[in-house]
Design a protein that fits this description.
Largest sheet: none
Radius of gyration: 17 Å
Strand content: under 5%
């Protein structure tokens, strides 16, 4: 059932006829609803659930009744970025790098962050972000989602995939800010590589990320959807 759900999620994520935000939100909803079936001991309903989401994806229509939390991306991502300080350090230059990136992102408050984010999204690299984030989500979902066979928590795996993608995007924005509004694809790739080297290369660091997005109210579905769907204005 996990493999069937992953196959559908990957199909959704690769469908560029609709926005990255809607595709990612759909995958989060799929994992959330699958988790509910597992929790209630009704895994036999998984096939029907997957088919319902497949039909919704074909219509490019998110499930009804979804609301974003009354929060901004700034609030959610500042909390997510702070998770780095709870992880073991693998590279000696990582703490100083993260500290500098955090200051570049959030040091001047929400309004400054949102102003810079709008400019970042309009930059050359910003216009490439939908494809780059799609590729990151595909990678994280393909690599980790079926690992839920060991802990029975596919929702946590999907939330971890979305949060990891958003954190790499935040690193890219921080690098863009730090470099005076310039960021090449190689710079973006370097930020993703740094993230991978520090988080993915440590089982305990991956556990910190997954446990946080599962257990902490700051990463509830509605708040994470707000971060995914935000255009930087906080609206």
């Amino acid at each position: 059932k996990l493999m069937d759900a992953r196959e559908l999620a990957l199909d959704i994520l690769r469908d560029r006829t609709w926005s990255w935000e809607d595709r990612t939100s759909m995958c989060l909803g799929l994992a959330h609803d699958l988790q509910a079936r597992i929790r209630k001991g009704r895994l036999y309903e998984a096939d029907g659930l997957i088919e319902r989401y497949r039909r919704a994806a074909e219509r490019r229509r998110l499930p009804s009744g979804w609301d974003r939390a009354s929060c901004s991306r700034y609030e959610v991502m500042e909390e997510a970025f702070s998770l780095f300080s709870e992880m073991e350090v693998l590279g000696k230059d990582w703490p100083a790098f993260v500290s500098g990136m955090k200051a570049a992102l959030y040091g001047k408050g929400r309004q400054a962050y949102e102003t810079r984010r709008r400019a970042f999204l309009e930059s050359e690299i910003g216009k490439r972000l939908p494809v780059l984030k799609e590729q990151l989500m595909v990678y994280f979902v393909f690599t980790y989602f079926c690992g839920a066979v060991y802990n029975g928590n596919p929702y946590g795996k999907m939330k971890m995939a979305a949060t990891a993608t958003l954190l790499i995007e935040e690193l890219a924005q921080a690098l863009w800010t730090d470099q005076g509004g310039r960021l090449t694809f190689l710079d973006f790739a370097d930020g993703a590589h740094r993230f991978s080297r520090e988080v993915e290369h440590s089982d305990s660091n991956k556990a910190v990320l997954e446990e946080a997005v599962v257990r902490r109210p700051g990463f509830a579905l509605r708040r994470l959807l707000a971060a995914v769907e935000s255009d930087g204005s906080g609206e």
